[in-house]
Amino acid sequence: MDLSSLNFKPELVRRYTAEGYWVGTTSNEALEEAARKFPNKVALVDARRRITYAQYYRAAQRLAAHWLSLGLTKDDVIGIQLPNWSEFGIAVNSAMLVGIPFCQFHADFRSKEVELVLGFTEAAAVIIPREFHGFDYMAMIHALRPRLPKLKHILVVGDDVPADLFDLRTFLAADDGVPLSEAELRRRRPHGNDFARVAFTSGTTGDPKAVIHTHNTTNSALAFLNRDHAITEDSAFLLFLPVGLNWGLFQTLQALPPGCKLVYMETFKPEEALRLIERERITHFSTAPAGLIAMMNAPDFKKYDLSSLRVYVVGGASCPIEVIRQARRALPGQLLELYGMLECGAQAYTRLEEDPEAVCGLVGRPLKEMGVKVVDDGGGDLGPGQAGEILTIGPSVTVGYYNNPEANAKSFTSDGWFRTGDIGMFDDQGYLKIVGRKKEMIIRGGANIYPREIEEVLFKHPKVLDVAVIGVPDPRLGERPCACIVPRPGQHIVLQEVVDFLKDKIATYKLPERLEILSALPRTPTGKIPRHVLLDQIVKATSQS
């Protein structure tokens, strides 16, 4: 890999090290310490079992020793394609123990996507389920192997694994074999600036890119979240966001420094999430707005004891103001809005001490450790109330894209700031508001229209359950705004109702000129709306009508 295109600027390395953000440790020191302090405390819970910290650490050691026995080194990559199972946490920590980079990816990925991930990273090993939701992962991998010459080792998690394959559950359950010695662990321990992981962007606006994070960039992001979100040793996380995504990994690793409990939920179901909050006395969970809406609209929502909740974080997509207000009325604890991305970690979020109503619609102030600014198309700084692209710099920002010098050149300024592609503005108090994605902006006859502005208003309409605004091609104006609406059950809505509701709230040129009624909006696993997919659906449906 060509390291010259990466954002390893010596001045940034010196700065973050001197300021104590890059301390050179990995998540495994935290796991080791938790196993020493709380050996019998429950660390991981899934649908099958409960694992203590002592069991967790030993399992990670055993698997790490196995990687070494296979000859894997820090120059290899381990692919991890698992559902929300306890084996995920064990697999991640096993790789980190001996400094082998890993790449976790979504359990729903199929042949084309898996080939891209494993082929692009040249993964030497992969961990897959035996079966999940009726899909045969072994058949998929076997079919792909001729096209993946670097893939040498396949580990399978599940029941009834064929004898000729490596059965990870049976291996970890056995008590033979000695964990790695402390001397060997010290010798193999990675440096903080070593590559820890490669993760692929969601690709909501185009082809996905592979993001590199070091141990230092990863741990910086974790430390900031744990400090500001009231996470202690008695906290309990509920994780229903897929572990194949960045937030799933973060919550897995967040639990380690304080030594708290992490509950994995295989598949998000609103009623099951509420039941687990009550049973496991969950204090923290993270979700996209769609997940929060689903939980609050569960038929038996009011019967569950949710009094243990302290903090629930909403991110991944902009949360409508009305949803925020509804949640704050319906749930105990504090809702925090978070602005972050795979490349940067969390850049801004609302705070526990802030008046919830005062910060509705905002994503908070930037973290003190992160530089965040809004610039115009020429790179000039913009003041309060002026919308432009958000740039960020800080110890949790990626060092670059894997084997992609072109993307690195486009994504970083000469002095190390990362171009997010998001459009935002600061208010007079230094709070950040997200206006939209640069690529989502609708240009109608030369006028710029940001979908979020329209969506925020439409979410207040009593007939609207969900909404996305996109630009549809127009031969004269370039694009026209189209409102894609999911009505509430039993409701019917027409374009004129939409226009009448909006016309005294937004400029005339921003009014939707087309209405599409849908049963559901397409969403990525993180809850984002892939607007290019939505547009393709509408264009295709129009051409067939």
Attribute tags:
545 residues, Rossmann fold, nine-stranded mixed beta sheet, 24% strand
The CATH topology label of the domain at 49-190 is Rossmann fold
Radius of gyration over C-alpha positions, nearest whole angstrom: 24 Å
Global morphology: globular
The top level CATH class name of the domain at 49-190: Alpha Beta
Helix content, binned percent: 25-40%
Count of DSSP H/I helices: 17
- Give the tally of β-strands: 28
Structural class: alpha/beta
Percentage of residues in DSSP E strands? 15-25%
Explain this structure:
The protein is α/β, with parallel strands linked by helices and 545 residues long. Helix 11 (270-280) packs across helix 12 (289-296) and helix 12 packs across helix 13 (321-330).
